[in-house]
Amino acid sequence: MKNQLDYYLIAIFSVFLGSQITEAIILVPYWKSLSAADFYSYYQDFGPSIGRFYTILTIVAAIIPFGLSLFYFRTKAASLPYAIISALFAISFVSCFYIYFKGTNQLFYQSAFSPIELKNELIAWGNWHWGRIILEALSLLFLVFAVAKRK
After folding, report:
1. CA 106, 110, 115: angle at the middle one, nearest 5?
2. Mean pLDDT of 122-148
3. Has this prediction a pTM greater than 0.90?
4. Per-residue pLDDT tens for 92-120?
5. 70, 122, 132, 151: which has the fewest C-beta neighbours closer than 10 Å?
6. CA distances from 47 to 11, 89, 104, 146 (A)
7. Is there a contact between 84 and 139 (Cβ–Cβ < 8 Å)?
8. How far is the C-alpha of 94 from the C-alpha of 34, rounded, in Å?
9. Intra-chain end-to-end CA distance of the chain, in Å
């Protein structure tokens, strides 16, 4: 029972990762199928709600490895190194937002790309997104290692 919280935290992080994979598999291909005018219209209508949804999930997911790292540090748990590695990957996937996504998403709101540029940018956006998913999966993997090692 005392480790039940660990499993809930892993489940929450897993939901976050699953939502990111869903975005990559469903939303990004849909965006690529739209004309530039339709994409910009869609993004104006749904971009803010998509952004809020993923912001909340990302913040919650990123806090989890930091919280466990702090807890494991205070309890001198042997699993601390795994939790710290998970937190480092969390920093990496959050950094991706500031390095690439924030500016590009703003350009989407501004309808800044020509139709050809938009197609290319959506390919780049999808590639960055898959890269971020890899970082998130690694963070989750080390989170699982941390919880497993704690036993």
Report:
1. 105
2. 97
3. yes
4. 999 999 999 999 999 999 999 999 999 99
5. 151
6. 26, 26, 12, 35
7. no
8. 28
9. 12
Neighbours of 31 (CB within 10 A): 19
CA distance 19 to 33: 20
Instruction: Copy the structure tokens of residue 147.
Output: 């919880």
What size, in residues, is the chain?
151
CA distance 83 to 67: 9
Cβ proximity of 6 and 75 under 8 Å: no
Cα gap 126→145, rounded to integer Å: 29
* Residue linked to tokens 């795994």: 82
Q: Are 68 and 3 in contact (CB under 8 A)?
A: no
